[in-house]
Each structure stands twice: as C-alpha cells, then as structure tokens.
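Technical annex, item 7. During the second reporting period the consortium partners agreed on a shared format for inverse folding records so that results from different sites could be compared directly. Each record opens with the tokenized structure and is followed by the designed sequence. A conforming record, contributed by the partner at site C, is shown below for reference.
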C-alpha cells in the first residue's frame, strides 16, 4: 500500500504548491516511485490553481489526474454531501494510489474565495487515510505565534491517541526579518511532539517574474516588446535627475518613470546600451515618450529593452506591481525548476529516506541520475577546462558548477570578455574560478606539443599556430596534467573538439576507436544510446568496441548494462550486410567480454517492450528490458536520439566521449546551460574513474589516423 502524505497549510502564507513540487522532486531524486495528487481544484487570487500543470511540466514521469472542479466541490459542500465528494476523490485517486510507493497529496489553501479549507482538508485526511505534513509560512511571524498555530492545527488531526502528523515544514523563512533560528524552531516544535522536516529559506530567484507575466497580469500596454522573458528582480521609481537615476538602475530592475521624464528614460536606455540590462522600462500616467527621444533610444530598444505603458500614476503602478500574485505561470518552466530544486533541497534527507517502505525498490529515475552526477562530481574535486570561455551559456554553466562545487572551472578567454558575458546574464564572477587569456601562450605548451607531435613533423612555428586555437591549448593542459578534463562544442563542431584530443591524448590502450554515448532520461528510467555522434559506419569489430565501451560507461554511472544491438531485423527475421554486421559484432562482444549481457540483432521495439519481446525474441535475456542501445551506424543513432529527445521531451545528457586516454567531451551547439553543467559533471566523474584505474600518461598511444 502506498504511503500517503497529505500536505496541509496552517496559514495563508504557507507556500503549498512550491512545497508539493519540492517534495515530489526530492523523493524522485532518491529513486522513490512517487505519485502526486491534487484532488480538489483551488482558487487563488481569483484564478484556478495550476499546481498539477506545473508538476507535469517539470517532472515528466508524473501523470496527474484532473482535480475535481471548484464548482463541483462547492456544490457538494453546499448540499452537505461531503461523503459523496470524498467518494469521488477516492475514485479519481485509485490508479495513483495503487501504482506508487509514496503519494504526495496537496490539500486546499485557505483563501478569501474558499473558506472551507479546514473542513475539506480534514475530510481528505480521513477519506484517504493519509499522514499529514503541516506547512507553515513563517515570513516575519514570531516563533511563539508560529508554534501556536502549528500545534493547534496538529490537534485537529488525531485518530484516537495517535496523531496523523508526521512532520512540519516551514516556508518563507528570512533570517534578516525573523530572528528565530531553524534550531529554535526545531526545539520549540519538539516540545509539542512535532518534528521539523525542513525549512525553505526565502530566495529571491524563486520570486522573480518575467516581464511578460507582469504585463499580462496588470494589463500593461506593450509599446516595445523587446526581450519579454527578462526577469524582474526589483522595482524602482526613477524620479531624480540623471545622477540619482543611475544609482537606481541595476540588472533586472523594472524602472518606473513618468512618461514625460525624458532624462530618466534616456538614463535607462544608456544603461541598456552600456551593458547593464534593466528588466524593462514602465512609463506611467499614459504619457508616451517624445518621438525624438525615442529615436535617440532606438539602440537600446534594438538591444532588447522592453517598454511598457500604464495610465495609472507612478505610485499606484508600483503598488500594483509589488502586490501582484506571486504564483508561477504554467509556461514558466525555468522558474518552476528553480522553485522545485530550492524547496526539494530544504527537506531533511533522513526523513525523506524514511518515507518509502524498506521493501520498496528504489529506481534510477532521471532526477536520481542527475542528482548522482552532481554528488559524484562534487566528491571528485576535479579541474575542468572550457576553451569556449566567453560563450555566455558556457560562462553561466561554469559559474554554476564553481558555486555548487561540481568542478573547479578554467575558462580560456580574455578576462574582459568573460566579464562582459557575465554582465549580460546578470551574473557575479564566483570565487575560485580561473580565467586564462589564450593569447598568452606559455612556452611550455609549445615545447610539449612539438615533442608530442614531432613524428608528424611538428615545428615550433606550427605549434604556436595550432595553440592559437583555445581547444588545442585546453587539450595540452589536459595532456600536461594541469587540468583533469575538457568540455567544448557549444560553438565549435565535434571535429574541432575531437581532433586535438586524438592528436595529443590518443586512445586508451584497449580501445580501437573513440565513440560516444548519450544518457537518455526517459520518464521512468535512464538508458544509454551509442554511438550517436562520432562514427559514421563502423565495421563489426568497431561496433563491438562501441558496445563494450557503452556497457562499461553504463556500469560506471550506476546503470546495469543490458546491451541491445539494434537493427531493422530481430534475430534471423531479416537478411543483408547490415544485419550480418550487427550479428558478428554481437558475437565478438560475447567472446571478448562474456560477462556482458548482450543480444542482437534486435529491433528497437523488441529491445524495449516486454510484450513485443515475448513474441519476437522469447529466449533473449535482454529483449524487453534493454538499458544500453547500440546503433549500427551514425545515421540510425543520431536520428533516433534526436527523435526521442524532441518528440518525447526527453532530457539527454551528452554526448560523452569514450575511448580517449583522458576525459574530453563534446557539446551540442544547441546545448542549454543545464546540459553544459551536466557534461562538466560527467567529465569530472570520468576523470575520477581514470584516477581509480591507475591510468597515467604512459598509457597514452598516438592516434592511428592522419591528423
């Protein structure tokens, strides 16, 4: 039977939806088979709550049943048909409750629109026989008042001598406004027989709306669209002269200016043009700027500055911005992910691990896999060089990895270019990050490259020319042991990333070639695809090597390797050279590495689907449950990976290169910041694995192909 945890707010300030998102995410990260229910629809700030939509967008493996509508809830309650309402809840919840080990159930938040929250939350706890997690918004509340409200709420959920309450979670804690420490809250709750299971600190990033959200919510007129996805971090009235205005213009500010204050308008636009990016310019009193002023400000508009207009007075407009609903729009995936991660980290890990029953098997969910990457990279303490050191996504990812301790990052770029990229994204350069100007080539790199490539006729002049490419310089840093790995490809092609690695680092002694894998984060598990990025048409021996490398990579990252050699034919159902190649490669792997579970040729559906496997390959120990998919050529592999990634909205991590004597990894040129972060983490883990294998520079062999 599923463990049922009902989240119940104790006051209006309780951040119920964010806590639900965070708890589901945290349980998913530890590999629990977690489900989510929002049995009853909620009206908040005049709008239907959208928690279920947010949950499905961020956690792709969560299938959320539709909640019972507000109208139906209120009709049943008005008629006194509470029991009928709870029967509907049980009927709608049955599948989720039966198919998960832990189910998080979101209760109803007390609002001006819905005064019956206490009544229905109590009914939900009884009908679902659920344990209760109380959510309290502390904000600026005093310790005694918070404890009093929580203890009063806990007394409402007694079953005989037993309490349903399994914990208390606090939201909105701000140490600058609330003098009580987490320890003091915990001690005070303990005296009431209650356990504190987490405290979510008030984090500014979780509250930053997009310009488009504020414009839509407040009905502002958009004079110039600009970059509507900019985040509003603060709101400032600019009513002084230019020197006073400049002091108030900062990254992400919503600059509120009367439309006839042309000096203030021009100050905002000049800030935009000089690299400080305000979120938007909001002009009040219905006054548009003078056409000549607008013409002077055109470069700022071209740079993306949004301009909004309201007929309200300046103070009225600012008050409406400040008092607006802080809820997250369903299409704001980035902010939802920030909130989810922030609240997920706030839960006590010991308490989380106590929720699934001891006999409930934990799975390697996509969230658990990503968490594993981060944790293992943090433990590895490796130094990773990024040749595309001024590329904005790379800069943001490097800063994030440095701050989180995922890796010590080395950016190859002129310092002023890194600073400009940081300013453009509103980032502060973290302590400990290294920035090296690639134009200042040290002689030791020249000497080492000449020595390494002298069999290819390398001279000092040629070496200096090649080292002008930051990727070659970064590769030499790996070769000399100054860094542990390299990540590139956000701008450069795969060939530009791999060629220097082959020339300088070479392949491992037991590797015939360099190949790649992607870690595909499917809704319920993580599988490996290889090779989808490097080898156009490998022969049977090379395909076998790719299979062995891919199986070893899967095992290294906690995925039990069951290798399916993919073909258009299963077994002997088809014929032709391509099928023969796959069959031969399968036999080569069995001979070389008999411990690897492998089968092929297998069609993709036979490899993944138990019912198909039963009819097409009933004797196979891989069919229907494959975790590693080896494709016969690059055309098939790359097409399949892209189709799955885009059509099913699957997160793919990689490509991770295999077979090199030191970790070098390529990025997709469409990589997101998150993709780059995980690739850096992968590289750090590979470097740690290399150390554990005892491999050193003596193991390196020159490439066997012409450079």
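Designed sequence (site C submission):
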């Amino acid at each position: 039977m599923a463990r049922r945890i009902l989240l119940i707010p104790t006051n209006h300030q309780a951040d119920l939806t964010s806590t639900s998102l965070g708890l589901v995410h945290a349980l998913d990260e530890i590999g629990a088979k977690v489900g989510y229910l929002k049995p009853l629809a909620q009206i908040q700030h005049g709008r239907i709550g959208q928690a279920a939509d947010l949950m499905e967008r961020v956690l792709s493996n969560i299938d959320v049943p539709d909640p019972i509508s507000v109208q139906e809830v209120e009709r049943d309650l008005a008629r006194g048909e509470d029991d009928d309402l709870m029967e509907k809840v049980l009927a709608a919840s049955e599948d989720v409750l039966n198919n998960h080990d832990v189910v998080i159930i979101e209760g109803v938040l007390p609002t001006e629109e819905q005064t019956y929250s206490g009544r229905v939350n109590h009914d939900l706890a009884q009908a679902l026989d659920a344990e209760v997690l109380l959510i309290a918004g502390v904000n600026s509340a005093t310790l005694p008042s918070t404890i009093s409200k929580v203890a009063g709420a806990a007394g409402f959920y007694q079953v005989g001598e037993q309490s349903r309450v399994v914990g208390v979670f606090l939201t909105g804690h701000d140490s600058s406004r609330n003098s009580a420490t987490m320890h003091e809250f915990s001690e005070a709750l303990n005296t009431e027989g209650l356990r504190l299971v987490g405290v979510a600190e008030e984090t500014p990033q979780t509250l930053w709306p997009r310009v488009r959200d504020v414009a839509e919510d407040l009905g502002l007129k958009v004079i110039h669209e600009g970059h509507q996805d900019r985040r509003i971090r603060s709101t400032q009235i600019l009513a002084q002269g230019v020197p006073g205005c400049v002091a108030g213009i900062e990254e992400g500010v919503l600059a509120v200016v009367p439309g006839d204050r042309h000096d203030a308008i021009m100050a905002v636009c000049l800030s935009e043009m000089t690299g400080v990016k305000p979120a938007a310019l909001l002009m009040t009193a219905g006054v548009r700027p003078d056409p000549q002023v607008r013409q002077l400000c055109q470069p700022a508009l071209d740079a993306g500055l949004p301009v909004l207009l309201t007929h309200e007075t300046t103070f009225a407009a600012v008050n409406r911005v400040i008092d607006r609903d802080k809820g997250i729009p369903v299409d704001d995936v980035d902010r939802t992910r920030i909130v989810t991660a922030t609240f997920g980290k706030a839960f006590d890990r010991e308490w989380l691990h106590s929720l699934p029953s001891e006999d409930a098997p934990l799975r390697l969910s996509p969230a658990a896999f990503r968490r594993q990457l981060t944790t293992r990279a943090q433990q590895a303490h490796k130094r990773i060089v990024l040749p595309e050191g001024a590329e904005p996504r790379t800069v943001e990812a490097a800063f994030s990895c440095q701050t989180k301790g995922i890796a010590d990052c080395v950016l190859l770029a002129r310092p002023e270019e890194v600073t400009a990229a940081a300013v453009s994204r509103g980032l502060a350069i973290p302590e400990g990050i290294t920035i090296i100007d690639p134009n200042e080539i040290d002689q030791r790199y020249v000497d080492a490259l000449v020595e390494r490539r002298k069999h290819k006729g390398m001279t000092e002049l040629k070496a200096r020319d090649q080292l002008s490419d930051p990727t070659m310089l970064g590769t030499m840093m790996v070769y000399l042991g100054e860094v542990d790995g390299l990540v590139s490809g956000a701008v450069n092609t795969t060939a530009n990333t791999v060629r220097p690695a082959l020339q300088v680092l070479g392949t491992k002694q037991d590797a015939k070639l360099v190949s790649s894998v992607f870690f595909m984060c499917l809704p319920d598990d993580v599988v490996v695809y290889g090779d989808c990025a490097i080898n156009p048409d490998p022969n049977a021996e090379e395909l076998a090597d790719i299979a062995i490398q891919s199986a070893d990579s899967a095992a290294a990252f906690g995925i039990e390797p069951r290798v399916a050699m993919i073909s258009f034919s299963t077994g002997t159902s088809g014929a032709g050279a391509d099928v023969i190649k796959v069959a031969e490669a399968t036999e080569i792997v069995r001979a070389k590495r008999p411990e690897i579970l492998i089968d092929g040729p297998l069609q993709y559906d036979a490899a993944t689907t138990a019912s198909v496997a039963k009819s097409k390959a009933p004797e196979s120990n891989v069919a229907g449950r494959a975790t590693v998919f080896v494709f016969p050529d690059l055309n098939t592999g790359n097409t399949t990976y892209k189709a799955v990634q885009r059509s099913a909205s699957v997160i793919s991590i990689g490509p991770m290169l295999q077979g090199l004597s030191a970790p070098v990894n390529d990025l997709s040129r469409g990589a997101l910041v998150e993709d780059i972060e995980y690739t850096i983490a992968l590289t750090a883990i590979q470097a740690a694995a290399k150390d554990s294998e005892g491999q050193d520079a003596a193991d390196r062999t020159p490439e066997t192909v012409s450079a």
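The CA atoms of residues 503 and 703 lie 6 Å apart. DSSP finds 28 helices and 26 strands in the chain. All partners now use this format for quarterly exchanges.
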